[in-house]
Amino acid sequence: MAVELRPSQALRLLHELSLAQVRDDAPDLSPRQLAILLSVYLETPPHTVRGLAARLGVTKPVVTRALDTMGALHLVSRRRDEADRRNVIIQRTVEGALYLEKLGDQVVAVARALPR
Amino acid sequence: MAVELRPSQALRLLHELSLAQVRDDAPDLSPRQLAILLSVYLETPPHTVRGLAARLGVTKPVVTRALDTMGALHLVSRRRDEADRRNVIIQRTVEGALYLEKLGDQVVAVARALPR
DNA sequence: CGGGAACAATCCGCTGCCGTAACGATCCTT
DNA sequence: AAGGATCGTTACGGCAGCGGATTGTTCCCG
Fold it and tell me: Which residues form the HTH marR-type domain (chains A, B) (predicted)?
């Protein structure tokens, strides 16, 4: 079944999530970075810079820079496509999977605590 | 009843929301700005700079700057507390309420479209 | 009434992200 | 083999946010 949610609950959910994110001194991903990370982990590979840029409606340098940042955090990694060496394949990492797993659990926990 | 949500659904929800936010060329609020905005609209007034800073665990200049930015977008407004003129009371605006209303509806729509 | 406390705003230097425009490498087509 | 197209990256100048320290008001209390 679809997830039932009223607007007031939705805003409370966002509120709790944003408070948790701000207070965590965890690496504070920007909206664009998070969108890229989720695309890499939730959509079917392979992922290229160009593909992600088109998917998000942003320019390629934006993707490159986001990958630089998240690569330094070990949330994603890059590899040359040997079949077409112009392409770069974006790969998932253990740390990235763990990061998103925690994030998902956090959302679930907040949702469960939401007032009726 | 609490909102039922599985981790995979939670991540899909975040994915759709972040994609929508990135593609909208709407004023892209930072996580901190959104947290402040939601606190102002969802928690009981009055709201002061100091109170919000303590609530989010950030410094006061962060709140002042966020209010500058969101004030320019007419999402919030400021007023001197006449009872204690050291304080600044953060007030809601029609535009801000509308902004959050749309945001809440968007979350609901995405949640409803989530696969079982 | 005077000195200190509380509050918000501002200043400072720094870091990170932005968009545009280039660039080098690689592929494809002829 | 050569020209053009495609891909990712980098260079550049600009803008916004950050933390920490400081300032100017206003209040409080002895």
Answer: 1-116
